[in-house]
Amino acid sequence: MFHKIILVGNLGRDPEMRYTPSGQAVTNLNVATNRRYSDSSGEMRDETVWFRVSVWGKQAEAANQYLRKGRQVLVEGRLVPDENGNPRVWTRQDGTPGTSFEVSAQTLRFLGGRAETEDVGMDSSGMGAAPENAEDIPF
Predict the structure, then answer these.
(1) Span between the terminal Cα atoms of the chain, in Å
(2) CATH number corresponding to 5-136
(3) Could you read off the pLDDT of 10-28 as tens digits, one per residue?
(4) 48: which strand partners?
(5) How far is CA 97 from CA 33, 55, 64, 72, 139, in A?
(6) Global confidence as pTM
């Protein structure tokens, strides 16, 4: 069996990176996806769905270094269910129930225009800009 989820959305806050006890980097992102639709009465409605995304390894380090709140990203990955195969259910501080959709990212692409990415040394594909000469390569 196989499933894949593809999200395009904006970061709701700055990335949070940590390292596992084995030394692997993991960065957590909160991604908001938006949809505008017309309801049965013809009134326009906006719907926002939030996803908690975990990014691993080198992608996690790049995400932590270059992404900030509001930046648009594309995430390809898989849903991470609770032990029953459902979204994670939790209780808010006011006592009401909440749920969260959790995604383990396999691919993360930084989106946005060139002007947005030039300041952080990234090109529009989300890959690092090539060094101008061989002396700038760190290895």
Answers:
(1) 41
(2) 2.40.50.140
(3) 999 999 999 999 999 999 9
(4) 34
(5) 21, 26, 30, 28, 51
(6) 0.73
